[in-house]
Amino acid sequence: MHELSIVLSIVDIAEEEAQKAGVDNFSKIVLEIGSQSGIVLEALHFAWSSGVKDSVLSKAKLEVSQIQAIARCEECQHEFNAETLYDSCPRCNDAFTELISGKELKIKSLELE
Amino acid sequence: MCTTCGCGNTSYLSIAKPGEKPMNIDPMKLHLLDDHKHTHGHGHSSSHQQNRIIELEKDILGSNNLIAERNRTYFKAKNITAFNLVSSPGSGKTSLLVRTLTDLGTQIKFSVIEGDQQTMQDANRISATQIPVIQINTGQACHLDSDMVDKALQALMPPEESILFIENVGNLVCPAMFDLGEETRVVVISVTEGDDKPLKYPDMFSTAQLCLINKIDLLDYVDFSIEKVKENALKINHHLKFMELSATKGTGMEQWYDFLKNTLHKPV
Lengths: 113, 268
Description:
The complex is a heterodimer. Chain A is α+β, with helices and mostly antiparallel strands.
């Protein structure tokens, strides 16, 4: 259940930004989360309400933009949507593939009313 | 509640050397940069500002990664080779360390950071080998993070030109996401677990550089194929290297010891 740690790290960053901006709370936060980032979205949503309690994010609407993992085949350079970390290349069936996106875990933006 | 590890107020993080009183660390003070404090924004939000958007593009694990890089620089400056040992509970990480420290303790300088939710058990086992050790009890948290390691390093003061083992909390999921500043991440799997484990817990196998297959003395009694586990792990991480050994019987330990000796850094 590291999602709670993640929520609390998000709160930390938001608190810092609130101080810089001189505000008491944010109305919306947009996260970018890769489909192979190791975050289970259901668990993140579950941890959200307790994690943001009494913070600058307590009233913020949570929007998650999920980024589809894309892998590139090292053999034929074909790029494809990766559903797991061990998908073989759908074109040449080679198992040597590298993720080129899908590990993202970031705060894209914070919104003030 | 701690904003890094999620531990509650009733369960503080503590670090302790065997035989000494544990030092409790207020989780609120643990994380992020030293000058960071938990304060709420007390400015005045102006009503005429309408839907101002702060385009942040900030890595959520940024503060952990920053402290991990600091740890890494510290290790480099002191010629310390740091290993982060990860596995499920019960794979034999501590037994592997005890055997390694007993066999090599007179040839190489070692120190150990032990991570567990509770108890000094592992640190006491390490301490019996006369190797300096510090125990981190994470309370509710399911993994070590770079800041806990930073705090433990300040108490442990590992010697120069040495090997530091960081034994992570037994958990194949959460520790995968947290860089501690190690040089090499070692995932330990024992033959009493399933050979499909790499596929079930891919994140850990994808972030490790070395995989130790432990308890090979039990191979005759379990339905576990070394070939299969390697094949599965290589599907996830084709750079992964393997060693097969038995920490309790001593089989295959020479290869591990040679590897450790070769990783020692000398001053340039």
